[in-house]
Each structure stands twice: as structure tokens, then as C-alpha cells.
Amino acid sequence: MHPTPLHETDLYVLFQDGDKIFLFDKDANADLWSVTISGGATCGIIALSNEWVLIGGRTLTLWKNDGFEKIDDPTLRQIRHLKQVSECEVEVLVELENGKMSGWLFDILDGKKTMISDPLS
């Protein structure tokens, strides 16, 4: 089985291989890091600045130069899509238990979240 690319920038490629997620450095032709995420990832995004990575799945996992942080927030579970909208903000699409979707704006610098769309059917 070949690793699945989740996202790519000019410098990096974010890959998934089962529950293992890794960031590949194109110039060095080597992995920068890897992390195991239970259940794997449904999506991931590398910042346009290449300074951080956000991985979505059952929860959010954030990587910055100082390491990994699991975002333990009950409203940010079952992540289905991520989209960078500013230097430090990401739109997060969450699937609710009833199958509906809700949208959140997540600030990677301070961890604050703001609902941007009520649950949609």
C-alpha cells in the first residue's frame, strides 16, 4: 500500500499511511517527523508559510516547531475538511453525531474557536 498525500506545498508533502502521518521535506528528500493518530486522518493542511501543520480526524492535531498538540475539544471532533483562511486561521468542517455538518474558525495561535455556520443537513 502506498502512502496517501493529504496536502502539499512547495517545500513539504503531508502523507498518511494507515494511522501514521508524516511530513516529507522535498529538498532534503527525507521525513521531518511522523506521528501516529488513532483512526488515522481524514484531512490535513500545511500552512502556506510552512510553519505549522493541522491534521483532522477524530480530533485535531497541531504541529508547530515546538512539537505536537492534540486539540482536546468536544466540538472539534470528526473533522471532515480543513481550509486555511488567514495566516493563522483555519476553517474546520465537523460532522456531528446526527450526520449534520457545522463549520468552525480555529485560530492555531491561541486555540480559540468560533462557530461560522450552524449545523447543516
Can you walk through the features of this model?
This protein has 121 residues and is an all-beta fold. The protein has a single domain, classed as YVTN repeat-like/Quinoprotein amine dehydrogenase (Methylamine Dehydrogenase, Chain H, 7 Propeller). The protein contains no helices and twelve strands. It has strands at residues 4-8, 12-17, 20-25, 30-36, 41-46, 53-57, 60-64, 67-71, 79-84, 89-95, 101-107, 113-120. The strands form three sheets. The chain has a four-stranded antiparallel sheet, with no helix packed on it. A four-stranded antiparallel sheet has the order 5-6-7-8, with no helix packed on it. A hairpin with a 4-residue loop joins strand 3 and strand 4 (30-36). The protein is globular. The model has no long low-confidence stretch (mean pLDDT 92).
In short:
The protein has 121 residues and is mainly β. The protein has strands at residues 4-8, 12-17, 20-25, 30-36, 41-46, 53-57, 60-64, 67-71, 79-84, 89-95, 101-107, 113-120.
Instruction: Report the mean per-residue pLDDT as an integer.
Output: 92
Shape estimate: globular
Flag low-confidence runs: none
- Note the beta-strand portion: over 45%
Top-tier CATH class: Mainly Beta
Order of helices and strands: EEEEEEEEEEEE
Q: Output the CATH homologous superfamily.
A: YVTN repeat-like/Quinoprotein amine dehydrogenase
Structural class determined from secondary elements: mainly beta
Total number of beta strands: 12
Q: Tally the helices.
A: 0
Looking at the overall shape, the CATH architecture is 7 Propeller
Helix content: under 10%
